[in-house]
Design brief:
The structure holds 2 protein chains of 2 kinds.
Chain A: E1 2-13, E2 16-27, E3 31-35, H1 42-49, E4 57-61, E5 70-73, H2 87-92, H3 96-99, H4 107-119, H5 135-149, E6 153-157, H6 165-180, E7 184-189, H7 192-198, E8 201-206, E9 208-214, H8 215-218, H9 221-230, H10 242-246
Parallel strand pairs in A: 3-7, 3-8, 5-6, 6-7
Antiparallel strand pairs in A: 1-2, 1-4, 8-9
Chain B: H1 2-7, H2 13-38, H3 42-51, H4 53-63, H5 67-91, H6 96-117, H7 122-130, H8 139-168, H9 170-176, H10 181-202, H11 209-219, H12 225-250, H13 254-272, H14 278-282
Helix pairs in contact in B: 2-8, 2-10, 2-11, 2-12, 3-6, 4-5, 4-6, 5-6, 5-10, 8-9, 8-10, 11-12, 11-13, 12-13
The chains are: A alpha/beta, B mainly alpha.
Chain lengths: 247, 290
Amino acid sequence: MAVLRFHDLTLGYERHPAVHHLNGVVDGGSLTAIVGPNGAGKSTLFKGIVGALKPLSGAIDLQGLSAKDIAYLPQVAEIDRTFPITLYDIVAMGLWHSRGAFGGIGGKDYWIIEQAIAAVGLSGFEQRAIGTLSGGQMQRMLFARVLVQDARVIVLDEPFTAIDAKTSADLLDLVRRWHNERRTVLVALHDIELVKANFPNTLLLAREPVAWGMTENVLTAENLAKARRMCEAFDDSAEACALAQTA
Amino acid sequence: MLSHYLLTPLADIAVRRSLAAIVALALGAGPIGVFLMLRRMSLIGDAMSHAILPGVAIGFLAAGLNVYAMTLGGLAAGLLIAVLAGMISRATSLQEDTSLAVFLLISLAFGVVLVTLAGIDIERLMTFLFGETAAKMNADKLLVIAVNATISLIAMALIYRPLVIDCVDPGFLRSVSRKDGIAHLAFLAVLVLNLINAFHALGTLLGIGIIIIPAGIARFWTRDITIMIVLATAMALLSGVAGVLFAFHLAIPSGPAATLIAGLLYAGSVLFGSNGGVVWRIIPGRHLEA
């Protein structure tokens, strides 16, 4: 059953497409890697999915999902690390879907938060100010918040970049756990070997979708070379897209 | 001797009103100042405090020395500017601080023209700018300040959670809520309420001091936001009350008096504050085992 449908989707900035004419379906419970060169539109696609960017044309059909059903971890979290707040409180933010702006946090919630912090190996760090955490600890903390969000769809943008191997392995275990729990997981990645070893499905994106399907059929040498060729810089003098005019 | 300095002012009802107003002002100002600091908006708050001047002047033109008319005018001017600046920065690529600065300059210029045309005498103008000399306050002003502070505290309690999230991780708030802008707008509205309070109690030029400086003091003593808010409120109260007493004894305006006291506390905190004070950087002590 599909949880996301892309209908001739074009996303971009100031009329320049960053994702161009994407069609396809993300099945419920699937684990999909989004792969492509720099500037291929991976982050842009995610911004479109979570509603942070309006399509230039086409549409994303969320199949009735609302904002609270999607947990999104951006590539560069805009976290103000000087803010006087503890790791515990950041993880507790994941309760927004059930508690909102005003709801009280009760007995079971404490258990959920503690479990999430334990699952990412940060027990004992609850009262640490976020400014004192290392890069790897920050990423573990943000994964704990995703755990608390308990969302049906999880979207992670380059979650293993600039993270040590041990942390990457631990966090990848969480991704597998989410997959086993039948959640739909989309992860933007650039490590091809990691994708081949762990992700059943892959979308190869180079502004245009190059290939989408079973990972072994998508990540062929031929497709990867094609992706590299297709991804050029914005052209300021580009003509209006012919496909868009006929649509 | 000390009790003489502390108790004689209380014989005067106008001074008692000033002191009561300081309590209300401090309760509202503490949390507002902390969030201004954490949102890196302290200078914006400073600039906005001047932007309410044309509204106050229009109130004065319409109804003379009527506290309610001047309050409504200032409120309208402050909210209008906050909302316009917010809308322009959301609709265009201009940053909010730039668009605010533009509006504030226009607004302040307009205010000065109005105040001059209205022919406000120099003594009254000094009161506008620096607060009541010798800390004498009328009952209407106290009522306005008390009502504003009450609304401010209730509103801050309501928007506290989204406001904290919007400060620390705005991207997360956007991803979980489509109404992420409401907390910021509500915060600006509460800020305007407190600016009006500060204007009535301590004057338009220096009133913001009792909002911003206590937050700066608190930052030097704690890393916990709750304690920071409590501490900022206490510091606002201390410098406000001390300022009013000095204003009474020396027959000076209350605005500069309160601001100077807060400034002294700030200087002490910069030097000796347990969280990043200069002295502890010079003499850090031996490093710890773990």
